[in-house]
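Retro notes (design track)

What went well: tokenization of the new backbones is finally stable.
What didn't: we kept losing track of which sequence belonged to which structure.
Fix going forward: every design gets posted as structure first, then sequence, in one message. First example under the new rule, 225 residues:
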């Protein structure tokens, strides 16, 4: 009789033992596994909030600086425009002032000339009378008589001036006439005559002065009624 090892059987007894399926172990996705503690989570949230706040502040500061720069540029442009307009107005005012001063200066000069003309005529009266008398002597030529009429104050100086002249061979008749202005002279001979009237010259200067004043004075405004 053959011997068998203890507890070893060739056949089982009773119902067959159920086959035990191997347990399936589900492997979790590493991304689904919690990796932070609550403290670390709160710290991460705080850091995120701080980063967002810093970014917001930086963006707000940049936007504020840009807005301030644009506002400053606009204000500067407006100020420069106003300054340019003011400078143009000042230039116009300066030009008007200079024009007015020049006109006033010209008016003063015209007034001075007009006032000084009689004095100047009196000052050159003797020289002008002697010059015109010399012209009359040459113009009289071969006439027998040359008559010269002038203010009595200049009669003797003219006689002294013409003494010894050789331009006229006829007789020179010098007459004083108080009705004539100082500096006036009337010369006549048979074929012609010449005359110097300082009053006419003074009137001509006065007319020129009046025209100059009229040109310098501003035209009246059409709005004034």
């Amino acid at each position: 009789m053959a011997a068998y090892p203890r507890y070893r059987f060739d056949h089982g007894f009773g119902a067959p033992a159920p086959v035990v399926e191997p347990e399936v172990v589900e492997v979790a996705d590493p991304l689904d596994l919690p990796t932070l503690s609550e403290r670390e989570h709160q710290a991460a949230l705080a850091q995120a909030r701080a980063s967002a706040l810093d970014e917001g502040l930086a963006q707000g500061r940049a936007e504020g600086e840009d807005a301030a720069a644009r506002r400053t540029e606009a204000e500067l442009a407006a100020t420069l425009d106003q300054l340019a307009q003011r400078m143009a107005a000042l230039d116009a005012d300066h030009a008007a002032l200079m024009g007015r001063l020049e006109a006033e200066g010209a008016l003063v000069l015209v007034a001075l000339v007009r006032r000084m003309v009689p004095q100047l005529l009196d000052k050159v009266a003797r020289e002008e009378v002697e010059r015109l008398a010399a012209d009359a002597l040459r113009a009289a030529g071969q006439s027998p008589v040359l008559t010269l009429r002038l203010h009595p104050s200049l009669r003797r100086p003219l006689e002294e001036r013409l003494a010894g002249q050789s331009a006229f061979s006829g007789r020179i008749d010098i007459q004083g006439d108080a009705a004539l202005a100082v500096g006036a002279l009337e010369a006549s001979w048979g074929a012609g005559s010449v005359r110097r009237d300082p009053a006419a010259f003074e009137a001509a200067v006065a007319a020129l002065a009046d025209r100059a004043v009229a040109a310098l004075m501003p035209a009246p405004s059409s709005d004034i009624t």
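Added context from the reviewer: Helices lie at 38-123, 125-140, 155-162, 198-216.
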